[in-house]
Amino acid sequence: MKRKESTYYQTYHVYNYGVDKTSIFRDRTDILSFCDLVNNYAEKYFIDIFAFCLVRHRYDMLLRPKRGSFKDISDLMQYSIGRYTMNFNKRTFKDFNQKRHGRIFGCKFYSIPINNEDELRNAAVEIHKKAKMNLQELSEYEWSSFRKYLQGDKTDSCIHINPMYFEKFTPEEIIAMHQ
To answer: How many domains does the chain divide into?
Structure first.
């Protein structure tokens, strides 16, 4: 089925699972490899990342193409996921002495268009909640943008986010949104 053409500067909740919901991130090395690829390709394809959460068997991100084309998001995902899969399979053999080939993700990727500010805020909250942690744990979880929203420039994020939408909220308001 052909994808409906996106609207200009549309934001999308993009996510994917491991095949049969198996682990796509086995350890810190896998996560950092994924983050590096996403950062590099997001810069190359002019994509703003507003929120993300990485857990053992899935990733979720809130993305907006700066040039307004969904093709930029599609290219970001195609190249970062393709390269990550190659690295994952090579590392499986090298570090874990197991032969591995083929897909690790269930499909290309899923995307949900975000149409207004309420949907944007709700999508970011839902993305952060994928870690299934209480707020204290989530505020310390390094594989989510939630920590960056609370601490601002005081902390780094493995995926470079553009916090422009959430800069207008205080940390207390951000916490209230997530309760």
So the answer is: 1
pLDDT in tens, 12-34: 999 999 998 889 999 999 999 99
Query: Which residues, 6+ apart, have CB-to-CB distance to 88 below 8 Å?
Result: 24, 30, 33, 100, 104
pLDDT value at 162 more than 80? yes
Q: What is the DSSP letter of 6?
A: P
Residue-wise burial string across 157-176, b where 16 or more C-beta atoms lie within 10 A, e elsewhere: bbbbbbbebbeeeeeeebbe
Picking from 48, 37, 36, the residue whose alpha carbon sits closest to that of residue 72 is 48
Tokens of 17: 């699972």
CA–CA separation, 162 vs 126, rounded Å?
18
Chain Cα centroid distance, residue 25: 13
Distances (CA, A) of 81 to 38, 51, 73, 176: 8, 18, 12, 34
Residue 22 lies in a domain: yes
**CATH (domain of 139):** 3.30.70.1290
- Rounded-to-10 torsion of CA 161, 167, 171, 177: -80
Q: Bigger pLDDT: 132 or 58?
A: 58
| Segments forming the whole domain that contains residue 102 | 11-177
Would you say residue 133 lies in a domain? yes
How do residues 139-153 score in pLDDT, each as one tens digit? 888 899 988 888 776
